[in-house]
Amino acid sequence: VMYLILMILSVQLSFAVEPASEEFIQRDQWVAAKFEGKQPEIPAQPGLIVLANYGPVQQNTRDGQPLRIVDQQFKRGLYCHANSSVVVRLPGPAKSFSAQVGIDTNGQYGGGSIIFIVKSGDKELYRSPVMHRGEAAQSATVDLNGATEFMLIVNDSGDNINSDQASWADAKVTFANG
Asked: Residues of the chain whose pLDDT is less than 50?
């Protein structure tokens, strides 16, 4: 009887399990990475990537206060300080980007002179004139032509970064699907 039970168990245990197709894909990626030096492509995730900025980039605020350009207050946007480069990665193709740009006038700082730039790939889509503290916000609107990534850049105007506090106020992306 014991012999019969062992025989039945050994027959049931001897069936092989076939690897799933995903396991073969993972094996091939591992082999390629280890022996051929090929790393798997990881899709880019939507969000902001700060490449350069003097201090933290702040969303919808400057030090806890609403964004302000001269006497105009804004509820949303990005506060940056020159020299600044921020990559904007989107979840899908975009039609356009728009913002009100200018020097943020929260605080008791004087001076400041900056240039706002929007780029997609190697192409410059927008460049403001040199903007100074006390000047009204300027409307920046660009056609993104289906891009899924673009850059917001704030440069000093060549004099230094003192008081070069920038607001991309009312920043808005319109997606290709509306």
From this structure: none
